[in-house]
Write a structure and sequence with these properties.
Helix content is about 0%, strand content about 30%. With about 200 residues, it is mostly beta strands.
């Protein structure tokens, strides 16, 4: 044994990953992936991306570079999450929903310096085939209907549908439509939180 060689330790085992990546997927260098996260078939996770714990990525997803994703995020099949998108905890992204990161793209003009941030707040859900135009914030526990095109900020707990998306009501944490009593109070079907609507915004009592 040379002076530069370290002695082998008995029963030393290689360090195992505490997350799962399918053999058909690629994870670039300088990526952080949290415990119990699962990345399934034909995905590509690009550099400088941070993914939290207990996340799931379905088939054919592309994430990054420079994307931050929280814990307990469910990303269904055929989704690309681009540079400029930030996703907080407990968020659901329906199959084939779309993010953008440039307002006025041209194939012959490089606009990487003009990427606009899109922020998805805790607990919100985006329906299948919905499009989220860049530069907006979607509030906590908001629900975006399937096929909607969202081009402006969405309030917490708002229920949005259509093209362009318009608000048609309010939903609770379970995604059920809020029903207000004669005193203007709604009770969350998930955890019994009480809400009141003041100045067209949901407040927690």
């Amino acid at each position: 044994m040379t002076n530069n060689q370290k002695p082998k330790t008995k029963n030393q085992k290689p360090k195992t990953k505490n997350y799962f990546v399918h053999e058909s997927s690629y994870v670039d260098d300088n990526v952080q992936i949290g415990e119990n996260t699962k990345i399934w078939h034909f995905c590509h996770i690009l550099s400088n991306t941070i993914i939290g714990k207990n996340c799931s990525f379905g088939q054919n997803c592309v994430v990054g570079p420079n994307v931050k994703i929280g814990n307990n995020v469910k990303v269904q099949n055929n989704i690309s999450i681009y540079d400029g998108v930030e996703i907080e905890d407990d968020i659901f992204l329906g199959p084939s929903m779309v993010f953008t990161n440039v307002i006025n793209p041209r194939a012959f003009i490089n606009r990487k310096s003009e990427f606009k941030k899109t922020l998805l707040k805790k607990g919100c859900s985006i329906g299948a085939n919905a499009t989220i135009v860049c530069g907006i914030t979607i509030g906590e526990y908001a629900l975006i209907g399937a096929g909607a095109v969202v081009n402006k900020d969405v309030k917490p707990y708002a229920l949005m549908v259509g093209v362009p998306a318009r608000q048609i009501g309010w939903v609770d944490k379970a995604g059920n439509k809020m029903i207000f009593d004669k005193n203007g109070i709604a009770v969350d079907s998930y955890d019994d939180t009480k809400y009141i609507l003041i100045d067209d915004e949901i407040k927690i009592l």
